Amino acid sequence: MTQRSPQSRPAAQPRPTDAYTALVNTELGRRIGRALGLPRPAPLRRHTPGAALADGPVLVLGETSVAEDIAQLLLRWGLDVRRHIGGEERLSGVVACFDAVSAPGDLQETVLRLAGVQRQIAPSGRVITVLRDPQEARDPSVRAARRAVEGLTRSLGREMRAGATANGVVLQESLDAAAPGVAGVLRFLLSGRSAFVSGQFLSVDSVNGTLPEDWDRPLAGQVAVVTGAARGIGAAIARTLRRDGAQVIAVDVPAAGEALASVANEVGGTALQLDITAEDAGDRILEHAEQRHGRLDVVIHNAGITRDKLLAHMDASRWSSVIAVNLEAQLRINRRLLASELFSHAPRIVSLASTSGIAGNRGQTNYAASKAGVMGMVAASAPELESRHGTINAVAPGFIETEMTAKMPTIAREVARRLNSLSQGGLPEDVAETVAFLASPAAGGTSGMTLRVCGQNLIGA
Ligand code: NAD
């Protein structure tokens, strides 16, 4: 079957993240880089409102009903969908459906079809595997086959070139591809919004969630709080949520008041000067949201601090301040907000974790403890949020180009930046795009999980 419904809008143009990436992508830089055997990170295709989701064919592999439903879904989005491919055409994406595997031998046919087209995947192209949740399989053979798809996907992520990525969609047993969360996750992974996400899995666990009328404004009419919004990733989140249609309440400490006011003005939102560790922080947020906006839909716990020291030199102040800001404040604020009527209609919470919380990091026992704690908090809070048709998730950034990482010693920074499958650091907007997706109604089927935005960092799971 070849079904075509080409889009008229062009896809977004790739943009380099740093000077080295820009340099090695010039003609001269490419020649020098090749001669010296240097890595050549590719400029990544990032989301631009109005741009096409993909500008070439998307191949859907697999003979299951899930594969057929996904092919139909992509067609409805105006994509050029193929179920088979003969020639040497460049592919924008491949969706490989492994949802029916029940023994390791079941993988081979689709794997070999994928292998046959891997070289045809375009720069910044996408491979998305679809599998059933391994945890739900009691039979050793079934679970082995499902876990095998995870290993395949992660390794493929490491083999992708030119800014292309590989990620997986994990479907809970009873769900079919008609669940809104499946469309939400597939669209995120196909789009430039997931530019710095590779080797990761997004689970869809329920039929919750709704698809937006306008995919470029999925948060239209919603009110979102962003903590730590005065600069860095928080400011990028505020801008992205605004672009996606939300009204933003920008929160930061009084000492950052000027920068906070400037971000709040820029996004046409309101500023709330608040230390999130204050006992009454939850009350202050509710009061502000009620009085200034009349509603509250989304809370992004982004504010965070580091106070790095080896454990042997750790003191009470360094330990307790990091735990207080990065973890205890979130727990306290969530408790207060979830007890309120204002935040009870499909509420969304997204917390900033870190890959340090997954892999550990020398000198960061306090920070890694706080960030691993955040992951525990979101997993344990998911049932309570679900009872209100809401979700809670965490985002774990890897190396992101911020003021903080700009201050690292040059060589350490250069090494950290290249130690991932995309050979480059992410931008604050990459984290913001993932946060905005998880905050959106289309992500309603995904809760309790931590999604890494790290270019598939070599460190950690
Ligand atoms: P940043 O230091 O640039 O900004 C953090 C903001 O939080 C600041 O504006 C600060 O004033 C605010 N803040 C701190 N304590 C506060 C408090 N008690 N109350 C209210 N606001 C407070 O940090 P960033 O690099 O933009 O990081 C944002 C989040 O992402 C943090 O949670 C951080 O741990 C996480 N993260 C960052 C990276 C990275 O590479 N930059 C990597 C992994 C995780």
From TrEMBL:
<dbReference type="InterPro" id="IPR036291">
    <property type="entry name" value="NAD(P)-bd_dom_sf"/>
</dbReference>
<dbReference type="Pfam" id="PF13561">
    <property type="entry name" value="adh_short_C2"/>
</dbReference>
<comment type="similarity">
    <text>Belongs to the short-chain dehydrogenases/reductases (SDR) family.</text>
</comment>
<protein>
    <submittedName>
        <fullName>3-oxoacyl-ACP reductase</fullName>
    </submittedName>
</protein>
<feature type="domain" description="Ketoreductase">
    <location>
        <begin position="222"/>
        <end position="403"/>
    </location>
</feature>
<dbReference type="InterPro" id="IPR002347">
    <property type="entry name" value="SDR_fam"/>
</dbReference>
<dbReference type="InterPro" id="IPR057326">
    <property type="entry name" value="KR_dom"/>
</dbReference>
